[in-house]
# Entry
Amino acid sequence: MAHPPIVHVVVQWWARLRLVKLVVAIVHNEDAGALVDALLAREYRATRLHSSGGFLKQSNATVMVGVEDDQVDLVLGLVNETCHPRTQIVNPMPPIMEPGEFFMPYPLEVEVGGATVFVLPVERFERL
Ligand code: 2BA
# Structure
């Protein structure tokens, strides 16, 4: 069987060695569309997942973007441009009370976002 030319082997090797990161951005539902549009306009590939926050139990969006190392800051810039902080009002859950006890619920103001972002190293990336 013929061996592939050395150039081909080196190119394949280099492709495997390129550093890829996964940017995971948890954003407000209302900002997710603008973020995905901005990413696609610059030809980044992105996946939007429906998620919900553990604390507020409200729906938010998780946007995953696989990019090469040197593109991470550009992606973070787009997240920064499109995702804005908001304040939300939370009604705290009443505690379990004994008979005769009284609880006055005060709504709490919580600041959410712009975005919570994790940048993860990717061991292997394939499009099959
Ligand atoms: P949630 O868990 O629903 O949190 C919404 C907002 O409530 C948070 O905004 C924060 O301001 C507040 N909050 C959360 N946990 C709290 C606590 N134990 N005590 C007081 N306040 C608390 P962000 O920090 O901007 O987070 C927005 C969303 O991002 C979160 O929604 C969650 O879905 C995600 N997230 C934030 N930090 C995370 C982490 N370390 N790991 C995984 N997901 C995270």
Observations:
- The pocket of 2BA is lined by residues 26, 53-56, 60, 110-113, 116 (CB under 6 Å).
